[in-house]
Structures are given as C-alpha cells and as structure tokens.
Predict the 3D structure of the following.
Amino acid sequence: MGVNAHREEHLDLCAGYALGSLSGEDEARLEGHLASGCPACEAALADFSRATVLLGASAGSARPSPALRARVLEAAQSEGAAGRRETAPDRGRIIKVPRRSAGWLTWLPAAAAAAMAVVSALSWNDANHVRGDLAAERQKIADLQQQLDQERRWAAVLSAPQARVAELQITPDGLQALRARATYDPATKSAVIVFENFTAPEGKDYELWALRGAGVASLGVIKPDASGYAVLKLENVGDPETLGGFAVSLEPAGGSPNPAAPTGPVVMAGKFGG
Amino acid sequence: MSQQERDIECLRRLIGGDQGALAELYDRYCPLLYPVTLRILRSPGDAEDAVQQAWMQVWRSAASYDERRGTVAAWLLTMGRTRALDLYRSLSARRRAETADPAPRSASPDPLADTAQGQLEQRVRQALDALAPQQRQVLEIAYFEGLSQSEIAERLDAPLGTVKSWTRQGLMRLKELLPEEEWV
C-alpha cells in the first residue's frame, strides 16, 4: 500500500480537522493525504463538517444587537474592493470568478465629487460678486445642491446593504459587446441600471423590461450617449416579492407599441441571485 | 438549488464586491455564529467584536473557500469560532473574569423569530444527550474551548488515541442521529 493510501486513522484526523483540534503535525499529515485525493476522507469531511454546524446550533439562539449588522456592512463598504483579495494557495481553490473591469461603476462617486467641488467654488465666489448677481448664484447653488442630493440618493441605492444585483447575460440574439448590470433596493423599490456598448442599430431602440412574477413591464427605452453608455435611475421598479430581474429587447425606434410585452427579440436577461 | 449551492453563488457575488451578498450571508448565518461566540466569550460585547472580525475576514478572503473541506456554513462558522477563541486567549484572565456573564442573554431577544432555530437547537441537544458522555465531552471541549486533542487528553487524563476515537465516534453518532438536519 502506498504511503498515502487511506487508513482508518485518517478518519480520526478528519474528525479532528473538522473541529479544528488537530496538532500542526497531524494537520500536515492529513493535508498530505488529501492532496492525492481520497474519496473516503472527502466524504467523511463533508459529514463531519455538517456535524460541527449542528454542534454550533446547540449553542442557543441569542441575537446580537441590530447595530452590529450596520457596523459590519459599513466596515465592508469602507474597505471596498481595493485592499481585499487574500489570495488562496493554489491547492484547493474552487471558486473561479471572471475578472470584470474595475471602472464599472466609478462614474457615480466621481460625478458627486465634481458637483460638490462646483458648489464649493460657487460658495467662495459668492462673497466677491456684486449684489445683483447674488440671487442668480444662490439659485445655481440650490440647483446643484438638489442634483447632489439626487446623486447621493442614487448612490445610496447602489450601496444599500440589502441591495439585490442582477448581471444581465446575453441571449443568442444579443451582441457579444452588450453589458448591463442592475442594482435594486427593495426598501425604496428603486433601481440603477448601467449599460455599456448599447448603441442600437439604425431605426431601432433597446428597451428595458422588469420581470414581475409571470409577466413583464416596460421600464422605458434606453438612450445611450455617443459611446453607447447609459444609466437608468428608476423609481417604483417593482415590489420585492414579485420583481425577479430584468430583460432587454431590441424594438423598433420608440420602443414596443405594447408596454406589457416586447415585440422584438430579447437580447439580454438577468435574475437576482441564483 | 440546495442551500450550499445558494451559498456558493452568494460567495461568488461577494468576491465580486457585492455587499448585498455579504448582507445575505450575514442575515442567514449570524444567528448561527453569534450564539457560538457568545458561549465561548461569555460577554455580548466581546462576542460582537469576534463576529464583526469574522465577517470582515469573510469579506476579504472569500476566494479562499474550498468546497472540498466543507460547506459554506461550516466555513463561516469556523471563521466565527476561530476569531472568538483567538479573542478569548488574548484577553487577560482578569478581564475575562470581570466581563463574564454566567448566563449571557441575547442583546435583542426576539422569541417569535426563532422557532425553527429553537427547534433545531432542541433536537441537537437531545442528540448530544444521547451520546456517550466522553464523546459529548470531547466534542464540547474541542468546539467551545478550542483545546487541541493533546490538551484534551491531558485534561481528561486519557490517552491521545482514545481522545481521537471519541472525537470521531461522537461526530459520526451525531451525524447518524440527525441525518437530515441542516442549518435553517
């Protein structure tokens, strides 16, 4: 028998491993044994790991304070994506996540920051203007402040801890370059949907649909800028109980004549979660 | 889709930076993590610190989860336990004595919400009662006090090999008594 062949004692090691009570030496021995694959041990590990979850369940049903949830989510938010990523050792890496462009949604905080800078600059200039210009400047500030508040509100949708995200996937009728991502906040029933490469062919428009229960409802035609980029910020997108996701169809210019059904092919679709 | 498949999907989204995924996992598994850390640390404040550290570790290292080593639930629980045991060891003995609450209660009791969890807890406790006393003892010491098998052998004045057998038999018996049970 090879040195790594399965033996009864390996099951003892698996039990200790599941409880985290193995010595460093024993853990290394088990890892060495598992490295060459052992179905018996892998099955035992699955069973023992499930049993340790049940042991945990015996500890009672105390709840932490509600403030803890907010602290955890705020801490995660302030860390953001940068500085995360403790990379796994090569052995045993199971989850492979396709890389996405980092610039996916960086426009929003940048726009808010730009608006704030303008507001600040105007406030400084205020003191140096003649009386007659004061009222006009104050109006500008008020308008920009309102824009900033709006931007903050939409930024809040994106970062709401309970926000649900749907990455839309291309259907066989969709062009490879199309990209769309929807973030829905069940608390406010608002959504922000970002589109890339959405320039429609001549005489056509892309239209967005909410998937509500068994039916769909139009959320409007997508009007991208010259580079094919668009952001839709929508209120009353749907109830959390019935809203399942979103879809995009390719319609004649102006959109589908029927607000409850697409007339053209569905090019992208995505549901929340899995 | 099984709970494990749903949790893996959640981890994928979390790795992509989706804080909604973190919130989902928190809501599902904090009721499992917190009582364990509270039992280890015996202080709601310390238990919350340990839980917070555990979730931050999840946020940072979700890509290191290995499905071959156990379920997502078990992995998350291990994070919580490890943080709690580390914190327990780092606190001075005097500090532990000062803050220990012999019967720590929930910071926010919610009797109506816990029915399914409470019933699972009942069933697990009954199964633990059915274990041989030594098997139950080694499991609880390993789990809630974080002692190594050698340390357990020393405390119980039993051979190391015997402690290893009790551990394996205890977990297998638990699994046999609760074949269909899963975290709610």
Notes: Confidence is low (pLDDT under 50) at residues 86-113 of chain A. Residues 1-58+98-159 of chain A form one domain. Chain A has two domains: 1-58+98-159, 164-271.
